[in-house]
Amino acid sequence: MITGIAVGPVDVTVVRLDDPPATELDGWEDMVEISIVAAGRVHAVGMEDPPPADGRLDRDGPGWYRLRIHAAGRDIAYDSVVDEPVEKYLVQSWPAPPESPRALSLSPSALATVAARRSNPPPPRRAFVTPEWETRERERAFLARENLFRHSPQGQSDPDAPSRQ
User: Fold this and answer.
1) Which of 40, 81, 113, 134 is 20 to 30 A distant from 60 in Cα terms?
2) Burial class (CB within 10 angstroms; exposed 0-12, middle 13-18, buried 19+) of 152
3) Would the pTM of this model clear 0.85, i.e. be above it?
């Protein structure tokens, strides 16, 4: 997720569902959906905090999930440092086959950001992957996962996590 603030806390609520929820804005400014594939446990985590006990996004273990992400308040303190949350997010997840990303609702500032990205696309990515890059990425992912589970409520590594090799 991309926040409006530069640094500080935001309120995030994670809800796991069995089926897609009804589309209701109810005060949310932005609402988008994306698909993710979970190879194991997937948690919503912050930059500095350990994962919350109720922040798990996967309900049934490995497989495809759909995420609906709601956002409000991203323009209140844009690019600022805050001590108290001014932004709130709701992340809903449910098992679903993969689909293309979808914007259900976008605020004027989010629309402007999308338009700017379309007019200035990022440079093309490398068309090939070297063995050295794969090794570095595997090591980086392993270390990130170990750090995540070191802070898990159980205080131990994920038994379903792939090995370091």
Assistant:
1) 134
2) middle
3) no
